[in-house]
Specification:
This protein has 205 residues and is α+β, with helices and mostly antiparallel strands. It contains 4 helices and 10 strands, in the order αββαββαββαββββ. It starts with 9 loop residues before the first helix and ends in a 19-residue tail after the last strand. The site of molybdenum atom (MO) has 6 residues, from loops.
C-alpha cells in the first residue's frame, strides 16, 4: 500500500524554524549556467558498478524509521512535490570537482510530508548498488539538500544515479547517494560505505 503525502504540524514547523539558523549561516555557492561543467568532463564515480540497473516499474523509495507515514513512495509522488533547480559544485575527495545543474525537491519538504521526527539525529540512505551513507538532521533540513531526479535538464542518467539521488552541496561527493532505494530517519549511527572505512563522517565542504 502506498503512503499518503500531506499534513504538517506546528511542532514540526518549530523545528524547521530552528533550521533557519543553519540556512542563513551556511549556504553552498551557486553558479550561473555559463559556469556549468561540460558534460563530457563531468566524471562518474562509483565504488562498484556505474549502473545497478534499477527497474523503474518496480522502483519505490522505502521510507522507514521515525516517521509518521512510513512505506513505499513512487517517483511520481516524489516528483509532484515543489521543484527546485540548483547549479552547485560537486567535490570528490579523489581530487575532482564539477558544477552541475540539478532539479528536484528539497529533502526537508519530503521529510515534512512523510511526518519525519526532525528531533532524530540522522537520515540514512541505502542505494541499489548496496552503497550507503548517512547525514545529520541539520544537513537533511538544509534548504539546498535536494532529492534529485534531473541532471542538466534531462532525466537523471543511469550513471549519475537514476532514478533518484540526494544532492548535498554542503557535503563532499561521497555523501551524495545515487540510486537511492531507502531513506531511514533514526537516532542510531549507521555510518556508510566509505565512512565505515575511515572517511570523515561529517565531511562538510
Ligand atoms: N550509490 C552510490 N552512490 C554514490 C557512490 C557510489 O559508489 N554508489 N559514489 C559516491 C562518490 S565517491 C561520488 S564522488 C559521487 C559521484 O557522483 P557522480 O558519479 O554523479 O559524479 O557519488 C557518490 N554516491
Ligand atoms: Mo567521491
Amino acid at each position: 500500500m502506498l503512503a499518503v503525502l500531506d499534513v504538517s504540524s506546528p511542532a514540526l514547523a518549530r523545528n524547521w524554524a530552528s533550521a533557519e539558523w543553519f540556512r542563513r549561516r551556511q549556504l553552498a555557492p551557486t553558479f550561473a549556467d555559463s559556469e556549468l561543467t561540460p558534460l563530457d568532463k563531468f566524471y562518474v564515480n562509483t565504488y562498484d558498478v556505474d549502473d545497478p540497473e534499477v527497474d523503474l516499474e518496480k522502483w519505490t523509495l522505502t521510507v522507514s524509521g521515525d516517521v509518521k507515514r512510513p512505506g513505499e513512495y513512487t517517483l511520481a509522488q516524489i516528483q509532484s512535490l515543489p521543484k527546485l533547480i540548483q547549479n552547485t559544485r560537486h567535490i570528490c575527495v579523489e581530487g575532482w570537482s564539477a558544477i552541475g545543474k540539478w532539479t528536484g525537491t528539497p529533502l526537508r519538504e519530503f521529510l515534512r510530508r512523510v511526518g519525519a521526527d526532525t528531533r532524530a539525529k540522522y537520515v540514512w540512505f541505502r542505494c541499489a548498488d548496496t552503497y550507503s551513507t548517512s547525514i545529520d538532521m541539520a544537513t537533511a533540513l538544509h534548504p539546498q539538500t535536494q532529492i534529485t531526479f534531473r541532471f542538466a535538464g534531462d532525466i537523471l542518467p543511469r550513471k549519475y544515479g537514476f532514478p533518484m539521488k540526494v544532492r548535498i552541496p554542503t557535503k563532499l561527493g561521497f555523501k551524495n547517494p545515487k540510486h537511492v532505494m531507502e531513506l531511514a530517519v533514526t537516532d542510531k549511527y549507521l555510518g556508510g560505505y566509505w565512512e565505515d572505512q575511515g572517511y570523515n563522517w561529517f565531511s562538510g565542504v
